[in-house]
Amino acid sequence: MIKLGEKIKSLRKQKNISQEVFANYLGVSFQAVSKWENGNTMPDVTMIPAIASFFGVSTDELFDFNLYEMEKQVEAICTESWKYRNNDPAKAEQILREGLKRFPGNEIILNNLLYTLDYKTRADEVIPLCKSLIESAKYDDVKYDACRILAECYKENGQDDLIAPTLEIIPEIYFTKLELMATLLSGEESYEAAHKHKSICVYDLLDMLIIIARHLKEKGEKENAASQLKIAQKIIDAFKEDYPERKWPEASTYEKEIEELLAE
Questions:
Q1: CA atoms of 142 and 111, how far apart (whole Å)
Q2: 48 in helix, strand or coil?
């Protein structure tokens, strides 16, 4: 496997640009670029997507990975981190950080890493990482998820004027790829898409019911708000049967929020 510094040097020479020009694009010193190319240091992981974008290659190409093998290993790393995401985010973050040592700049791991960072206390990490993924991500789902997370981070930190422009990046559509795959494909592909889409729909529906309930409570319509929350409770009860093997850890979070709203 070719070393990252050698790859950067090779791509830079193919593009026929100096270390100074490349450094100015990234906002670093040319000495930093020289150290990368000599193998003395590595670029910060948040800079990898920008480097790949500059040279017009994917992050996979930048690291000269076997794509199929890399995807399997990345999936395994992310799956392991999911086990701890809700009850031990620090452990989930550690797993992903270790993964980034093996696959620096991998956008799937970086996207998962965002879910382990507290938007309020670590906005200085969340915001630049989101912006980097929005600019350079190869996969649209990673790019637009980064948009969503960035908007949520702005909301959490009182930067409301930046929320709408960020959300405008996301295209408005009335169907999803998963929905169409579930409907139009067959066999295992249809099943996997339907299973994933079902889970997303459950979370979205619960979120929307809670948002509507909060709005109704603010308008003084407590009975109508309570009816929305009771619907949400029924959905949670129904889907507890759908996730017996992992006990649907998110359910307790929703239940607590609903109980608090009903008690107000």
A1: 6
A2: helix
d(CA 143, CA 139): 6
The pLDDT score that the predictor gives to residue 1 is: 40
Angle between helices 107-114 and 123-136 (to 10 degrees): 140
Flag the least confident range among 14-23, 39-48, 175-184, 196-205: 39-48
CB-count burial class (<10 Å; 0-12, 13-18, 19+) for 221: middle
pLDDT tens digits along 166-189: 999 999 888 888 899 999 999 999
Question: Both tokens of residue 115?
Answer: 């879910």
Tell me the C-alpha distance between 103 and 45, whole Å. Answer: 9
| pTM of the entire predicted model | 0.58
Q: Would you place residue 244 in the very low, low, confident or very high pLDDT band (cuts 50, 70, 90)?
A: low
| Distance in angstroms (rounded) separating the CA atoms of residues 69 and 106 | 13
- In angstroms, the CA 246 to CA 228 distance is 27
